């Protein structure tokens, strides 16, 4: 299974938090990264986005259908994100989809990345608009997590 963690692009400051929109710079970041994902990302991608407007707008840049999932919202944690994504097996969607893209927030994305790579949650930073791509595989009976790519927004 592949798991792609995409932090929402740059958004306006303000309240209410869930209604914050992307800035013009954020719209450009989302568009560039969406282009990179369409060109280089896995095919047959299941996309989950936080209900926050900035995540919805970031996901919309892909021009693909996506599901909104409260389990990856602003008050989420690494465990609920992994359950929503079905990591590491793909969950109920594994027959049709072997890759999940999560459009979410800090600190959850950084904590999830830390957990996947080190086995312990830590406050790692995923920059706005950036993408972290993980794969899960089994080698000689051992399950492994592989970091396939980290793409900052400006490289998208």
Report on the structure:
- The chain has one domain (2-155): Rossmann fold (3-Layer(aba) Sandwich).
- It is built from four helices and six strands; from the N terminus they run E-H-E-H-E-H-E-H-E-E.
- It has 156 residues and is an alpha/beta fold.
- The chain is 28% helix and 24% strand.
- Strands 3-2-4-1-5-6 form a six-stranded mixed β-sheet, with helices on both faces.
- Helix 3 crosses helix 4 (108-118).
- The chain has helices spanning 24-40, 53-60, 78-85, 108-118; strands at 2-7, 45-49, 67-68, 99-104, 131-139, 142-151.
- 45% of the residues are buried.
- The model has no long low-confidence stretch (mean pLDDT 93).
Q: In whole angstroms, how far apart are the ends?
A: 22 Å
What would CATH call the architecture? 3-Layer(aba) Sandwich
Question: How many domains would you count in the coordinates?
Answer: 1
Instruction: Trace the largest sheet across and list its strands.
Output: 3-2-4-1-5-6
Poorly predicted runs = none
Q: Which structural class fits the helix and strand makeup? A: alpha/beta
**Fraction of helical residues:** 25-40%
User: In CATH, what is the class?
Assistant: Alpha Beta
Kindly report the average pLDDT value. 93
């Amino acid at each position: 299974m592949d798991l792609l963690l995409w932090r929402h692009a740059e958004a306006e400051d303000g309240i209410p938090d869930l209604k914050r929109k992307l800035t013009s710079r954020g719209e450009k970041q989302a568009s560039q990264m969406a282009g990179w994902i369409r060109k280089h990302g896995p095919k047959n991608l299941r996309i989950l986005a936080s209900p926050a407007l900035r995540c919805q707008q970031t996901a919309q840049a892909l021009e693909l259908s996506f599901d909104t999932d409260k389990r990856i919202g602003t008050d989420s944690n690494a465990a609920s994100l992994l359950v929503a994504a079905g990591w590491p097996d793909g969950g109920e969607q594994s027959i049709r989809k072997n890759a999940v893209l999560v459009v979410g927030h800090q600190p959850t994305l950084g904590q999830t990345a830390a957990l996947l790579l080190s086995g312990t949650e830590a406050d790692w930073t995923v920059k706005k608009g950036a993408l972290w791509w993980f794969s899960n595989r089994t080698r000689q009976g051992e399950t492994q997590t592989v970091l396939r790519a980290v793409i900052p927004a400006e490289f998208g």
